[in-house]
Each structure stands twice: as structure tokens, then as C-alpha cells.
From TrEMBL:
It comes from the Bacteria. PANTHER family: BIFUNCTIONAL 3-DEHYDROQUINATE DEHYDRATASE_SHIKIMATE DEHYDROGENASE, CHLOROPLASTIC, SHIKIMATE DEHYDROGENASE. Pfam families: Shikimate_dh_N (PF08501). One of its GO terms (biological process) is aromatic amino acid family biosynthetic process. One of its GO terms (molecular function) is NADP binding. InterPro entries: Aminoacid_DH-like_N_sf (IPR046346), NAD(P)-bd_dom_sf (IPR036291), Shikimate_DH-bd_N (IPR013708), Shikimate_DH_fam (IPR022893). GO terms for cellular component: cytosol. Keywords: Amino-acid biosynthesis, Aromatic amino acid biosynthesis, Oxidoreductase. This is Shikimate dehydrogenase.
Length: 245
């Protein structure tokens, strides 16, 4: 049996396990198994690499950057982004890829309109790095928002009407609002969001986060992270099966 899986911490809720179980069933794939490897520390990944028949695995929070020292090579995208969410085992080598960027690119691009020129990215972790990469590719100027102000980052405290209205795309890359803490939302002045805004949340559970609900109530276009997850999963499957161009 070919072994696949997901590494992360506290990931019993995993989308990936149920997604691949359904995929294997629907496509009559009988030689593959997808498991969840819940690791309390990244160095436990060495035991995962010893799994018999291991072809590859996905990587989620909080190990998208921490996995890199355990790999032999990085794809050009993963190297540029500085984060890995897909690992391929090929010819004895551990090769890191990033398919988050593919998923984000192909799920946000159809929603972009000519007035969507500037963005705010909430968070600065491994998932956010794929978002930065694609916004750069799309030539969308953006600012990072984090808890503390730096020369290049806004802090949540300083966000005002002018900043919000001058940044028509807001992407939530933080875990705030994820199940079960569904009443939480990033601390934004939502009253300044309007119909010119696009709010994109990488969270998929719940489907309508408080962040998206607040935007929707003010007329904004909204998008959750489900399509991005599906697209990145399918791209990972292509990589594992050597179907990428």
C-alpha cells in the first residue's frame, strides 16, 4: 500500500483525511492510505519518514516552516515562499513543495476586479507566506497586519477608516475564528468595510466565519478557504503521482 498523510499538531479535525478517503473511494483507488500524524514536536517527523511505503505527506500548522531543515530539496515555489505544505519522497530524497500558493492563486483570481489594487494580510505564518507570494505575482501591493507595529507592518490598533478603505482586499491568514472559537474575529474596524472590499478567509470551518459575516453585512464580497484547500490537495496528489508538468 502507498502511504500518504498529514503532519501537524492537534489536527484530529483534519479536512485532508476525510477528503482523501472520499477521493480514494470515488476514484476506486485501492492501493493508497491517508493517515493523520499528530506530532507534538517537529523532530517526531523522523518516525513518519520511517513509515513503510511512504510516498509523501501534507504539512499544516505549525510545521510549514519547521519542516524545512528535515528535507533534502525544495521546489522553486517552496524555496521562494519559505514554507512547505507538501512533501514528496522520491528516489530516497525528501522534496518540499508548496501547493498553498496554487490553491490561493486559482481561488482568488476569479474574484478580483480592477479596483482591487491593495491588500491587507492578517498574520505572518507559513500560510501567509504563500499569500504574499501570490499577491506579489498578481502585482497587488499589500501590508501585513500583526499584533505589534513594525516599520513594514500595521498593528491592529492603528487600523482606521483611511487604511481600511485604501486596502480593498483583506486576507485572514490567522487562526482567529476557527472552530470551536467561532464567535471570534480579527479586531478590525468593520464599519469601514464596504461593497468595494473583498474579504478572503483561509479558514474553512466554519464556512461563514465571523470575519466573513462582518464583511458580508457591510456589502463586501467574501470567500472562505474551502476551494483553496481542495485545489492544494489536488495539486499535492499530482505531485505525489508525478503528474505535474
Amino acid at each position: 500500500m502507498r502511504q500518504f498523510g498529514l503532519i501537524g499538531r492537534n489536527i484530529s479535525y483534519s479536512f485532508s483525511k476525510s477528503y482523501f478517503a472520499e477521493k480514494f473511494k470515488n476514484e476506486n483507488i485501492v492501493d493508497a492510505v491517508y493517515n493523520v500524524f499528530d506530532l507534538q514536536q517537529i523532530d517526531e517527523v523522523e518516525k513518519v519518514f520511517e513509515t513503510e511505503g511512504l510516498v509523501g505527506f501534507n504539512v499544516t500548522i505549525p510545521y510549514k516552516q519547521e519542516i524545512i531543515p528535515f528535507l533534502d530539496e525544495l521546489s522553486p515555489e517552496a524555496k521562494a515562499i519559505g514554507a512547505v505544505n507538501t512533501v514528496l519522497i522520491k528516489d530516497g530524497k525528501r522534496i518540499g513543495h508548496n501547493t498553498d500558493c496554487y490553491g490561493f492563486h486559482h481561488s482568488i483570481e476569479p474574484l478580483l476586479e480592477p479596483h482591487h489594487k491593495k491588500g491587507l494580510v492578517l498574520g505572518n505564518g507559513g500560510a501567509a507566506k504563500a499569500v504574499f507570494y501570490i499577491l506579489d505575482l498578481l502585482k497587488i501591493d499589500y501590508k501585513i497586519v500583526s499584533r505589534t507595529k513594525t516599520e513594514n507592518h500595521y498593528s491592529y490598533d492603528e487600523l482606521n477608516k483611511e487604511i481600511i478603505q485604501n486596502h480593498q482586499i483583506i486576507v485572514n491568514c490567522s487562526p482567529v475564528g476557527t472552530f470551536p472559537t467561532i464567535e471570534n474575529a480579527p479586531l478590525l474596524p468593520y464599519q469601514f468595510i464596504n461593497e468595494n472590499h473583498l474579504l478572503y478567509d483561509l479558514i474553512y470551518n466554519p464556512p461563514l466565519t465571523k470575519f466573513l459575516e462582518n464583511g458580508q453585512q457591510n456589502g463586501a464580497k467574501i470567500k472562505n478557504g474551502h476551494e483553496m484547500l481542495v485545489l492544494q490537495a489536488e495539486k499535492a496528489w499530482e505531485i505525489w503521482n508525478n503528474r505535474t508538468k
